[in-house]
Amino acid sequence: MTDAPCPPPAPPTPMQVAIVTALLKPGPLDQALVAEFLSPAAIEARQQAEAEQKLSDWPNLCKYRGENAALAGTAPPRIVFIGDSITEIWRHADPDLFGDGVVGRGISGQTSPQTLVRFYADAVALRPKLIHLLSGGNDIAGNTGPSHPDDYKNNIRSMVAIAEAHGIRMIIGSIAPSSRVYWRPQIEPRPRIRDLNRWLREFTGERKIVFVDYHSALATEDGSFRPDLSNDGVHPNLAGYAVMRTLVDRAIAWATQ
Question: What is the fold of 14-255?
Fold first, then answer.
């Protein structure tokens, strides 16, 4: 144990910046960029970096430790957005949303058990009025290994229980549509997404939690991501985030009545 467990934060790499830009801008992805991103050397480098990070800090508590510390002594945020890459990229897609007491705490690639471990430090401890949670797609992809649907459900239940114990209301969003997991091509995600979203709707209804059905607004009839709202079939582009903004503004208004 140490008083300073985190290394200095590293700036985003040129590839990370290029990928986020490509995911958000209108139009299809640059295939040269995709080929570079999916090259064996790039994949090996990412896998090695991810393995080292998970070995030293599996839930990635270090990512926002500095930003959390900077909020100490200031007015609590109104809302914390916590989740995976869709939440993390949202800060870049819609910076106007993340101001006036709204903070983002998304981490790309994270599964619900990782988010649960950092839920107190990155959300509850900031003492917000609301927490907006998006999680589940990476559980289906198996990013941190195989898991059972009940494991995901229990992680969601646990985060809700922690928030409620501290008097914090929650907004839970549906899992986004996807017909493929390009980093796990053997997986067909749509049946799991449908089943877990049905459970999320039922669970939030029972607990009187505001549920945001992003999936219905972003999906085609067969459960794929609408091609006009996503460049890669997994993440929203700017048009997709604009659709989500309309829905979340309404959800925030409901949750704060």
Answer: Rossmann fold (3.40.50)
